[in-house]
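Re: the 403-residue chain
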Amino acid sequence: MKRRDILKGLTLLPLSGGFISKASAIGITDTPTPQKSTRDLFAELGVTPVINASVTMTFLSGSLMLPEVLEAINSTSHDFANMYELQDKVGAKIAELLHVESAMVTSGAACAIVLGTAAAITGTDHEKIKLLPNLPGPRPEVIMQKTHRYLFDQAVTTTGAKIIEVEGNDEMEKAFNERTVIALFFNAAGKHSVTHEDFVAIAKKHNIPSMLDAAADVPPVENLFKYQKIGFDLVTFSGGKMIRGPQSAGLLFGRKDLITAARLNHSPNEAPIGRPMKVNKEEMFGMYAALKAYLERDHKKEWQDWLDRAKRIGSQLETVQTVKTETVVDPGPANAFPSLRVTWDESKIKIKPEQVVTALKSGTPSIVANGGKDYLTVGVVLLRPDQVDIVAGRVKSILQQAV
């Protein structure tokens, strides 16, 4: 991880010294109200702009990129770059920021799981890399806790590997054999039958690497450092969620030998399993810019801003009879930030929370919120400053009309 010289002709030094600190240095973390363009592509294509009063979801395009990220993308779009060299330089800088041996930019956390698994299967063996996912012989095996099975573990089987489910320390101990290549821990699972520490210790005992999927698990910022300190060999985070980088970017970091193997399984190499999962140069610069800005951010100020937003919306809604609001914080580890919970007496306000959600979504502008059986949840962390009162006004109007 000594490669800290800056590639001549690439703009990493302006990245670190120029636009990165514009918002973060003074604690401003809001996405500014966009300036009107002469060309409205939403209107041209008939696409409905959406206000996200929910959480970071891929189908809603993740989060909104910070000004630093947009400037990184725009300022690097006018020149070509050697992608091998760029991934090397950006990876070294990211590793330096995260205090790890090595790092790389991936096309999201799901791609990182594919590449991490592939790295454990192939190492730097070019013949295996070329053959994946159709290696001869028995399928490689990846150990996961039964309670950790989830939609995105298809990223594991994409490599041709087979998932072996375990429950508890004893089953995990017995699951290792000559076909085991890696052990995957899903951080946001509702239940861990094996703790983080035991999971790592058991994998190390068998000389098998461990990987942790923490895709949506910031804030808090400390989580970016917590899991490699526990001892996980590979860790992945999404880039386009609360780090607010490009939606299609992610981070994979940890052991240098595994990152080296992961990169060999990725674009711009021409034949590996990760070739279809390429990351363009602008996303690499943008992901670096986003991470640096995120680490420099005034997180206490940002948290207070979220609380203030919730209070501001709540105070407007509580002017409607029987409406009560409270600020709640999801326990995490995913989406661990404040939101506003709204309740009312349905004998007085004759509408159900899910009906409010539908009305918000179908209105103009379209607003996405969440509704449970007994309450409405209004997310505040992804709103632009100019959207806070819009959301409050729309919810208030819908409730008033139902009186």
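The radius of gyration is 23 Å.
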